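Weekly puzzle thread! Below is a chain. First person to post its structure in token form gets bragging rights.
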Amino acid sequence: MATYKRILLKLSGESLMGEKQYGIDEKRLSDYAMQIKEVASMGIQIGIVIGGGNIFRGLSGTSKGFDRVKGDQMGMLATVINSLALSSALTQAGINAKVFTATRMEPIGNLYTKWEAIAAMERGEIAIIAGGTGNPFFTTDTASALRGIEIEAEVMLKGTRVDGIYTADPEKDKTAVKFNDITYDEIYNRGLKVMDLTATALCKENNLPIVVFDMDTIGNLKKVMSGENIGTLVHN
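Winning reply:
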């Protein structure tokens, strides 16, 4: 039995690089598609937001001389590229997916509205929501929180390369301890870099729980959806 009926899955753009230094690793993309198909076959309605850091990150572009607004717009376009790639991989895996964009971009994708995205999910399609919030100065984490609340998801799953939230960065500090669950307030008070403050506040105020887990290990997405205790649950 699935723990949730409708989810918002946030995928990291950097994770799409796999073993590469830039761009999209086709094997990683295929692995993601198969994991998503596995969960969709359980009857779960799935919305997806994916980052664009494997192609371009607006904030880092600013430090290299890009105007912040232009840089963020470039980052939004990077998320559209990743969304199209994931849509293609899902289609190849035999599952229908529809790309929605925050700003009008037909025929690349349909203009996002809450109701169109929900209708697609209720038809059994994967709703991939691209282009961030459509505004500069907002991260894809914030876009994920916003879209998760809008489509009335029961949980936001944040797929990363780390298997949960730790007291410190486990890749840098070997003494870091993992949390099985943690509150939004504790994340804020400890200064943990789980998501940006805007995204965290949105989830807290709208009571949208988050599960942070390792998406790069094949089978983990299904384990989370089956209620296995992996990753870290963030809640009020």
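Puzzle host: Confirmed. Bonus trivia for everyone else. The radius of gyration is 17 Å.
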